[in-house]
Amino acid sequence: MKLLLTSGGVTNPSINAALVQLLGKPIAECHALCVPTAQWGHPKCGPSSVRGFVAADPAFRHLTGLGWASLGVLELTALPTIGAQRWVPWVREADVLLVDGGDATYLSHWMRESGLAELLPSLPDKVWVGVSAGSMVMTPRIGTYFVEWPSAPDDRTLGVVDFSIFPHLNAFPTNTPADAQRWAAEIGGPAYAIDEQTAISVVDGSVEVISEGEWTKFG
């Protein structure tokens, strides 16, 4: 897949231009599926925040509220009970998957359980736009710092890319550069700390940082 891994979504013209380039056509002509699953694994998320994401409320203007041709919902926890013959065509027909934040280990679990993780390699023209955990799930590890799901066996995620991501740099009192430095020491491998104005594009193994804000590479 073509990956656009963000902290806060499509928050500035540079990230917007990168997204349009990945899509190959205007956002208004693209059909999106939004994936709220990670929210259920995080104690600060719930029915209200999931509704806001799905309904493209103003708080989600940088992801579901970008002006897509259509928005559908792909809830991964439901997929194992309905059969791949139903949901795989939905994914193949969409132009882009919009994957919200929450807990990345919970999202990783349900990507495997649902079969979506296994399907991804067969979708080279599909675009994945992640926010926070929706980006971190593609990395090998997220660090114990970000594990909120009590049933998570460890901090490992899908490992689609070979670097880890510390999101929301300077957005919260607990996401300072010093916090990122300590997190990176635990990760012990390639990693990026990115703020809300930064994204990482990954296409055919080529990694590019798109930023109008602050970011740091570790390792």
Précis, in short:
With 219 residues, the chain is α/β, with parallel strands linked by helices. It has eight helices and ten strands.
Ends distance: 25 Å
So how many helices?
8
The quaternary structure here is single chain
Sheet with the most strands?
7 strands, mixed
Order of helices and strands: EHEHHEHEHHEHEHEEEE
Structural class: alpha/beta
Point out poorly predicted stretches: none
| Overall spatial form | globular
Strand order, main sheet: write it out. 3-2-4-5-1-8-9
Number of strands: 10
Fraction of helical residues: 25-40%
Radius of gyration, Cα only, in angstroms? 16 Å
Mean pLDDT: 97
Strand content: 15-25%
List the helices and strands and how they pair.
Blueprint: E1 2-6, H1 13-23, E2 31-35, H2 37-40, H3 47-54, E3 70-73, H4 84-93, E4 96-99, H5 104-114, H6 116-119, E5 127-131, H7 133-136, E6 164-166, H8 177-187, E7 191-194, E8 198-203, E9 206-211, E10 215-218
Protein name: Peptidase E
Pfam families: Peptidase_S51
Keywords: Hydrolase, Protease, Serine protease
